[in-house]
Write a structure and sequence with these properties.
The protein is mostly helical. The protein has one domain: Four Helix Bundle (Hemerythrin (Met), subunit A), CATH 1.20.120. α1 runs antiparallel to α4 and α2 runs antiparallel to α5.
Length: about 180
């Protein structure tokens, strides 16, 4: 890990602020989606609407377990400052989460729950697709950390670990909220 010179501390602070601002903007995006869903749901005569009565439950539950585990393995990765095993586990669980999302979309189509069938089904797809896009971005950052683990260990700073971790854990919390809102409540 790099030394903590005053120049590095200033740069680390700036990068940390940038990640915080980025997460706030992502939070606003998801917050707007949650608000829209809440408004549609509160104005609905019956719940669930017929378009989503048969929403699959197992795949979203499994997705929740997988992303929760990935957050836990990333936390261990942060604590061990670059332990390769936890990096691999986080990466594998992240890709497993994406596979589960593709299986969910396939199951939704199989059940006839399509985005074109109304506001609520389109919101389910919007939530899961936007979240999956952010997961792809987060996975690319985890892969980027792998460069430092395997090729340039001296470049792996605590701030890099923490900032990627903020994003990773943020997406885990967002998925948990989505799971509760879309599939449980």
């Amino acid at each position: 890990m790099m030394t903590n010179s005053p120049e590095n501390q200033t740069k680390d602070f700036q990068v940390s602020v940038a990640m915080t601002v980025t997460l706030i903007s992502f939070g606003m995006l998801f917050g707007t989606m949650f608000l829209g869903y809440t408004l549609v749901r509160s104005n609905s005569q019956t719940w669930p609407p017929t378009e989503i009565e048969n929403l699959p439950m197992f795949l979203p539950f499994l997705s929740t377990l997988v992303i929760g585990l990935s957050s836990w393995t990333y936390n261990l990765f942060e604590k061990k400052a670059g332990a390769k095993l936890y990096w691999f586990l986080t990466l594998a669980l992240g890709f497993a989460f994406l596979v589960l999302q593709f299986l969910l979309w396939s199951k939704l189509q199989e059940l006839g729950i399509l985005a074109m069938h109304g506001q609520v089904p389109s919101m389910v797809y919007a939530f899961t697709w936007v979240h999956a896009g952010h997961i792809v971005l987060a996975l690319s950052l985890v892969l980027w950390l792998g460069y430092f683990i395997f090729k340039k260990p001296e470049g792996l700073t605590r701030m890099k670990l923490l900032n990627v971790g903020k994003f990773w854990h943020f997406l885990s919390v967002i998925w948990l909220l989505m799971y509760l809102m879309l599939f449980v409540l």
